[in-house]
């Protein structure tokens, strides 16, 4: 029988998928099913194990209830997996502060948050800055999806331009 540490180490490479219906116009299940199939196919072909799909029926619930998200966070604290995969960060929440809290809770349990459509790496200083910028921009996410621009691409552009703006403002001193 495996000890708890060995079990947790094994589960570091297990991936879970979290999905929820984020739009009143979205037919229940259609896009979600497609997204799950795409994610499972892509990551299983790459050799990763998708151990569970957490599916939140968000339209039927008060936005503060979210029992499936609460269960995912509880399972993360138990060390049942090492990665939470979402289609995009908007899937978790449209509130930047809440997204930061969710990411911190996952990271505190050695669970990585990954998005299939947005590139960020919270293990580096620049990646953390990009993620924080993404959280600040979440309220504008609907604009980027209408233009097929990943939120992370916009955040990366802003973060990379900051040193240019700071340097040009220092030149004027």
Describe this structure as you would to a colleague.
With 173 residues, this protein is an alpha/beta fold. It has 7 helices and 4 strands. It has a 4-stranded parallel sheet, sandwiched between helices. Helix 2 links the parallel strand 1 and strand 2. Helix 4 packs antiparallel against helix 5 and helix 5 packs across helix 7.
Give the end-to-end Cα distance, rounded to a whole number of Å.
Answer: 67 Å
- Report the order of strands and helices: HEHEHEHEHHH
Biggest sheet architecture: 4 strands, parallel
Residue stretches low in confidence (pLDDT < 50, at least 5 long) are 167-171
How many β-strand runs? 4
Number of helices: 7
- Helix proportion: 40-55%
Output the strand order for the largest sheet. Answer: 2-1-3-4
Return the structural class. alpha/beta
Portion of residues in beta strands equals: 5-15%
Overall mean pLDDT stands at 77
Sum up the overall morphology in one term: globular
Rg result: 18 Å
List the helices and strands and how they pair.
Elements: H1 4-11, E1 14-20, H2 30-45, E2 49-56, H3 67-77, E3 83-86, H4 96-108, E4 112-115, H5 125-137, H6 141-146, H7 151-171
Parallel strand pairs: 1-2, 1-3, 3-4
Helix pairs in contact: 4-5, 5-7
The gist of it:
This protein is an alpha/beta fold and 173 residues long.
Looking at this protein, list some descriptive labels.
173 residues, alpha/beta, four-stranded parallel beta sheet, 7 helices, 4 strands, 51% helix, 13% strand
């Amino acid at each position: 029988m495996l000890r708890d540490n060995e079990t947790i180490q094994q589960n570091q490479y297990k991936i879970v998928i979290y999905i929820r219906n984020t739009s009143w116009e979205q037919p229940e299940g259609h896009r979600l099913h497609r997204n799950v199939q795409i994610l499972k196919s892509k990551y299983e072909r790459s050799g990763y194990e998708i151990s569970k799909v957490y599916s939140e029926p968000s339209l039927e619930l008060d936005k503060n209830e979210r029992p499936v998200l609460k269960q995912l966070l509880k399972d993360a604290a138990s060390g049942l997996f090492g990665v939470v995969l979402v289609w995009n960060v908007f899937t978790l929440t449209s509130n930047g502060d809440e997204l930061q809290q969710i990411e911190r809770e996952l990271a505190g349990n050695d669970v990585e948050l990954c998005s299939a459509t947005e590139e960020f790496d919270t293990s580096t200083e620049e990646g953390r800055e990009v993620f924080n910028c993404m959280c600040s921009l979440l309220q504008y996410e609907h604009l980027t999806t209408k233009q097929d621009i990943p939120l992370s691409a916009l955040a990366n552009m802003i973060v990379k331009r900051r040193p240019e703006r700071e340097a040009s403002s220092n030149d004027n001193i």
